[in-house]
Each structure stands twice: as structure tokens, then as C-alpha cells.
Amino acid sequence: MASYANVLEGKVAIITGASSGIGRSTARALADAGANVVLVGRDTTRLDTLRDELNGQAITVPVDVTAVGASISIVDAAIAEYGRIDIVFANAGLFLQGKVAEADEDSIRRTVDVNVTAAVSLIRTALPLLLEQNSGDILLTSSIAGHQELASEPVYSASKHAARAFAQALRRQLAGTGVRVAEVAPGIVLTDLWGYPEGDDRVAERLEAGTGIRAEDVADAILYMLTRPAHVTIRDLVILPTSQSI
């Protein structure tokens, strides 16, 4: 991973889905770069462990991002602790695959609520603060499934297409304001979502075969996006394992 020591010194980043996978790795990467991080997720124990690991550079907001008022609670916590927000990373996500005719309606609603509605709500709540300071970064986690229509996961693919479309429409709406908007679209990331908990011995084999990437690889790409000069926007970043054919 490239060295970004202190490049985000003084910045404040909200990260949803911070208790595992891409969110956790990105929290570590941003803290290493000097940022203060607002860790959002449902797993209080994991959030507390990560907060302690980050040595005073983080606070936790244990909340379900789909709950009524969750976005306000997250933004209020960030402002109360740090007085500002510079980065909003709407990363919390659910994966749903299978035949639509056999899908559970509650699972469909939950997937869309987490992947789309909660992300839009958090961004809407934080946006006036970013506009007031004429700077900031908004980043959404989409997926390769948001760039291609995958028959194995139509609901998930639809939700990620929506996240990508929202990011691009918002980016155009905010052009010239100093607030950048982008989406990162990973392929197969070897995280809990794919049945690979942190430290799993099988990860090395998948990496060698080029059939998966690490959450740390995505975090490094995100840090690159966030540290470009103010006149540069990385609009979309698709990051795939070398052997992924889509």
C-alpha cells in the first residue's frame, strides 16, 4: 500500500459499514493518513475494537443506517465530536442473490433500504455542511454489479446501479461547488460478505489465483481517490481481481 502519512491530517470522515470488510479497512487507511473517523455500524463490539485500535482517532455510532433518524444521529455525533465533516463514505451494504420469483420480499426491501435509501439519506443530511464550507468528498460503494446486469443477483445489481446513478447525477448537480462525488465499484472482495473473515487462510490462495482482492486493496484505491488535488475528480473506480472475467 502506498504511503499517505498525514495527507488527511485534520479531516473528518464518516464511514458506514465500518465494523468489517471494506469499511473497516478504509477506516484504518484514513486514520493512518491522519483523519479522524466516525465509525458507523450495528456491531458495537467490533466498532469498539476498531475504535481502540485507531488510538483516539475515532468515535463510534452504533446504529442501523436504515432506522428513522439514523442519518441525523450520525451527522450530529460527528459535529459534536469534531466540529466538521470532510468525507462521507456511504459504504454499508447487503448482498442478495438468487431467483427473483423465489426471493423473500423483506430481504428485497432490506437490501434496497441499506444499499440505496440509507446512503441517499446520509448524504442528504451531511450535504449542507459540505456546501457551506465549499469542500468535501462524497463516496459511495457500488459494485461491478452496478456496471453490469448480473443474472445471478438482479436485486443486488439493481441496487448498485441505483447507487452509481445517484452518485453520477449528484456529481453533476454539485459541479463547481467544491464538493466531489464518486463511486468505487469492486469485484470479488474476500471479506465476511463472501465468507472470508479477516485472517482466513484461504485468502492467500485466492489472491495468488487472481480470483479475489483484499478489502485493503479497495481501501488503498479509495485513499488514492480522496487525495487527488482539488481540481481532480476520480468519477468511477472499478477494481477487480485479475482473473475476474466480468
UniProtKB/TrEMBL annotation:
Similarity-based family: Belongs to the short-chain dehydrogenases/reductases (SDR) family.
Domain of life from the UniProt record: Bacteria
PANTHER family per the UniProt record, alphabetical: DEHYDROGENASE/REDUCTASE SDR FAMILY MEMBER 7B, DEHYDROGENASE_REDUCTASE SDR FAMILY MEMBER 7B
InterPro entries attached to this UniProt entry: KR_dom, NAD(P)-bd_dom_sf, Sc_DH/Rdtase_CS, SDR_fam
Name of the protein: SDR family oxidoreductase
The entry's keywords: Oxidoreductase
A Pfam family the protein falls into: adh_short
Domain Ketoreductase: 11-200
SUPFAM superfamilies assigned to the protein according to its UniProt record, in alphabetical order: NAD(P)-binding Rossmann-fold domains
Taxonomic source organism: Microbacterium jejuense
